[in-house]
């Protein structure tokens, strides 16, 4: 049978590797399993979105359009304008905004749209550790992924000066994750502008994955975004920039599969043309729910408060046994652990029935090593009482000798 040979270049997904790591282990039956491995929000969905979806079920009787309803694009543009302090007319709902069925599929599809595999050795740059969709997108677009190691030494932030200039010349697409997954580190606006200037100098597109931007401490400064950085740097048309936002994390709606892409009008139009063939139109009830969610901030504030309480409780319990601090954004703890990260994750599951994700599964080996080795990712998405129980079990595990 003939198949796309690039499929053989895909590596196992981190959760496949985690399942194999745990295979054959029987944890204590008296302990309820607490999964902290998957970043799936588990707070209640906002009622404003649920009610809007229920009230729009008659929309199932018609085909949606790929560009989305005008009301949805207007709601998205209005939210982004408020959130990132844009001039009122800067973000045109008709030219700069495109709804997508969750940013995961859009982040993947973008590479298929913008990578020119006929150019010599096309490269796609991405952080390391990284969201594995970036790598798979690059490979299936006919490009080679290249990695920017994120370590404690560089504050878990991309260092463009550490990348070979020849590699920048071959780069066609740069994936950014800001705030970062898994570290929660945040690039400031000046750093975003430096990368944007490099994109113009070396002729590549920036895909700014900003899906964790609304999960941040209530008393802190909200993370900046690439749209605002581009405008304030003089790029009035968001040239070479596409940002990706989602309702999954912001609004606890991962099952709705709703997000948006916004930025450079030429790129948005090309992506729209690609998606028209790809068949990615959002269902009308989902659009109605999305409009309601983007227009409402009250549930976002409540969501942030829930994460604030969980971080305070977990960090207090783990104080003295792990070197941890609250990340600038996101709902992960990127925790350094004693010994090998895979051994730690396997033994924690075996002894305490708690699942965390080995950091080495989120990273690739580079000349500098695997930057995720020696760390685990813990997603504080479970209810407060489960996060507290997991932290208490982890403290017991560490004090007994991990």
Protein model, in words:
- The chain is an alpha/beta fold and 402 residues long.
- It folds into two domains: 11-39 and 299-399, Aspartate Aminotransferase, domain 1, CATH 3.90.1150.10; 47-296, Type I PLP-dependent aspartate aminotransferase-like (Major domain) (Aspartate Aminotransferase, domain 2).
- The chain is 39% helix and 14% strand.
- The protein has 14 helices and twelve strands.
- The strands form three sheets. A seven-stranded mixed β-sheet has the order 2-8-7-6-5-3-4, sandwiched between helices. It has a three-stranded antiparallel β-sheet with strand order 9-12-11.
- Helix 8 (226-232) links the parallel strand 6 (205-209) and strand 7.
- Helix 3 (70-83) runs parallel beside helix 11 (284-295), helix 4 packs parallel to helix 5 and helix 12 (298-318) packs parallel to helix 14.
- The relative contact order is 0.18.
Concise overview:
With 402 residues, this protein is α/β, with parallel strands linked by helices. The chain is 39% helix and 14% strand. The strands form three sheets. A seven-stranded mixed sheet has the order 2-8-7-6-5-3-4, sandwiched between helices. Strands 9-12-11 form a three-stranded antiparallel sheet.
Layout of helices and strands, plus pairs?
Elements: H1 14-22, E1 34-35, H2 47-54, H3 70-83, E2 97-100, H4 103-114, E3 123-128, H5 132-140, E4 144-149, H6 165-170, E5 171-177, H7 189-202, E6 205-209, H8 226-232, E7 241-246, H9 247-250, E8 259-263, H10 265-278, H11 284-295, H12 298-318, E9 332-336, H13 341-352, E10 354-355, E11 357-358, E12 375-379, H14 384-399
Parallel strand pairs: 1-10, 3-4, 3-5, 5-6, 6-7
Antiparallel strand pairs: 2-8, 7-8, 9-12, 11-12
Helix pairs in contact: 2-11, 3-11, 4-5, 4-10, 7-8, 12-14
């Amino acid at each position: 049978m003939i198949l796309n040979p690039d499929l053989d270049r895909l590596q196992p997904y981190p959760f496949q590797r985690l399942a194999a790591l745990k295979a054959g282990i029987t944890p204590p039956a008296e302990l309820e399993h607490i999964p902290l491995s998957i970043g799936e929000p588990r707070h209640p969905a906002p009622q404003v979105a649920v009610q809007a979806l229920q009230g729009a079920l008659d929309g199932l009787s018609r085909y949606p359009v790929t560009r989305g309803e005008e009301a949805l694009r207007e709601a998205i543009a209005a939210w982004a304008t408020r959130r990132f302090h844009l001039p009122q007319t800067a973000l045109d709902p008709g030219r700069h905004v495109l709804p997508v069925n969750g940013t995961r599929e859009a982040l993947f599809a973008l590479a298929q749209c913008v990578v020119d595999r006929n150019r010599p050795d096309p490269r796609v740059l991405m952080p390391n550790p990284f969201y594995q969709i970036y790598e798979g997108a690059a490979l299936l677009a006919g490009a080679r992924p290249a990695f920017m190691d994120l370590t404690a030494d560089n504050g878990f932030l991309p260092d463009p000066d550490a990348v070979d200039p020849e590699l920048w010349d071959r780069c066609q697409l740069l994936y950014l994750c800001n705030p970062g997954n898994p570290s929660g580190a945040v690039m400031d606006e000046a750093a975003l502008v430096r990368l944007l200037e490099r994109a113009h100098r070396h002729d590549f597109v920036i895909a700014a994955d900003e899906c964790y931007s609304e999960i941040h401490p209530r008393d802190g400064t909200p993370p900046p975004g690439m749209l605002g950085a581009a405008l304030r740097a003089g790029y009035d048309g968001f040239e070479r920039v596409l940002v990706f936002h989602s309702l999954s994390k912001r609004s606890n709606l991962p099952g709705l599969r709703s997000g948006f892409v916004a930025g450079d009008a030429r790129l948005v139009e090309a992506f729209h043309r690609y998606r028209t063939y790809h068949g990615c139109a959002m269902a009308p009830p989902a659009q109605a729910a999305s409009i309601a969610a983007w227009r409402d901030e009250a549930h976002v504030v409540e969501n942030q408060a829930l994460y604030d309480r969980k971080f305070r409780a977990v960090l207090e319990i783990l104080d003295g046994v792990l070197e941890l601090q609250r990340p600038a954004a996101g709902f992960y703890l990127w925790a350094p652990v004693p010994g090998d990260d895979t051994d730690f994750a396997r033994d924690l599951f075996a002894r305490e029935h708690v699942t965390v994700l080995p950091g080495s599964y989120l990273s690739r080996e580079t000349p500098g090593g695997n930057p995720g080795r020696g760390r685990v990712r813990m997603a504080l998405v479970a209810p407060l009482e489960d996060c507290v129980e997991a932290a208490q079990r982890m403290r017991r595990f560490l004090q007994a000798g991990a």
